[in-house]
Amino acid sequence: MLNELLTFDSGSVIFWSITYICVIVRGFKKQKLLLPELSVYLNLGWEISSVFINSGWKNWLWLLLDCLIFVLLIAQKRRGLSEEKKSSQTIIGIVFLTLSTVAFAIVFSSTQNGMVVSSFVIDIVMAIGFLITMIIFPQNGRSIPIAVTKLIGDFCAWQHYRLYLPIIDKIGLTVLIMNSV
After folding, report:
1. Sequence-ordered list of residues with C-beta below 8 angstroms from that of 17, at least 6 positions apart, any chain
2. Contact status, residue 171 vs residue 121, Cβ threshold 8 Å
3. Rounded to whole angstroms, how far apart are CA atoms 178 and 13?
4. What distance in Å separates the CA atoms of residue 94 and residue 161, rounded to the nearest whole number?
5. Quick check: 120 and 168 in contact, CB under 8 A?
6. Residue 133 and residue 131: Cα distance in Å, rounded?
7. CA distance 180 to 127
């Protein structure tokens, strides 16, 4: 049982890392970020908070990848704007990032399972964001490699954590169903 859980945890790390790398590469190539904006702030805020609690290599790796995604988002939002509007977009991004970091730091320190539950809440926010983007902007398309690696990464995370908390079983299953669309 322990080996199986470690395998699912490793699978989650591997496939989510591949997903982030695909998002970054496609973002640089197409000059368009595929991740929903809110999930970028939430992911990076979560990772900043998590390195103070679990400073393992995967947290540092994901922090680095999330920082690159954040830079892509800010660059995308600033493209074609006046200098004044560029500054305001950067400030807004930093404010959202700061708020999410502080919120996650509070959640992590005040609840025993805050890190796990909040990571699955971010997953559901991201899945909703992807669905909304796909419906509103179908011309943007969907990246099959990103969709597949995200789905496998979510499946592995769900398998790893669903036995710990009943709520994770429900949230994870909802995320998987939404990602399958």
Report:
1. 58, 61, 62, 65
2. yes
3. 20
4. 31
5. yes
6. 5
7. 10
Local confidence pLDDT in tens for the 181 residues of the chain: 555 556 888 899 999 999 999 989 988 888 877 788 888 888 889 888 888 877 778 889 989 999 999 999 888 888 877 877 778 878 888 888 888 888 878 877 777 788 888 888 888 888 888 888 777 766 666 678 888 898 899 999 888 888 778 888 888 888 888 887 7
DSSP, collapsed to helix, strand or coil, labels residue 54 as coil
CA-CA-CA-CA dihedral for 125, 126, 128, 133, to nearest 10: 140
CA angle, residues 40, 13, 36, in degrees to nearest 5: 20
* Contact in structure between 179 and 154 (CB atoms under 8 Å): yes
Q: What CA–CA distances, in Å, run from 37 to 2, 12, 79, 126, 170?
A: 36, 22, 15, 9, 25
